[in-house]
Design goal:
14% of the residues lie in helices and 50% in strands. By secondary structure, the protein is mostly beta strands.
């Protein structure tokens, strides 16, 4: 009987430990920087997120779909209940005017390991 109770207690502990983890929740997955002139090609967007889990959240990687888009993020763990940001800079210099939409893939240690963010806008042709 003692062995069964110990096994049950260990199982309960393991299940509770496995359930405790970080969880990332973004305010927005898409940021539109609007319309801007070709003479001002550098635009930024800030994605705000919160760790809604109960363990520290670590952003392992944030990778853009193109070299013209650069994400910046904190490398320090985000405690449960705290917020953080990912700043994304788009540089349209040398790019064709018109609509653009770039993808940023975020990998973290959370319940959902991968999230895709999008930055988009319209660059007007210079005169």
């Amino acid at each position: 009987m003692k062995k069964a109770l110990i096994a049950l207690a260990l199982l309960f502990t393991a299940v509770n430990f496995a359930a405790a983890q970080a969880e990332i929740k973004f305010e927005k997955l898409v940021q539109n920087v609007g319309t801007f002139p070709e003479s001002d090609p550098v635009q930024t967007a800030v994605f705000v997120f919160k760790n809604v889990g109960d363990q520290p959240l670590i952003i392992n990687q944030a990778v853009a779909s193109c070299g013209c888009t650069v994400p910046e993020y904190t490398k320090a763990p985000i405690k449960a209940g705290e917020s953080g940001t990912i700043k994304v800079t788009y540089n349209g210099k040398g790019k064709f005017p018109g609509h653009f939409k770039k993808t940023i893939t975020v990998r973290a240690n959370g319940k959902v390991e991968m999230t895709r963010l999008y930055i988009e806008g319209d660059m007007e042709e210079g005169k």
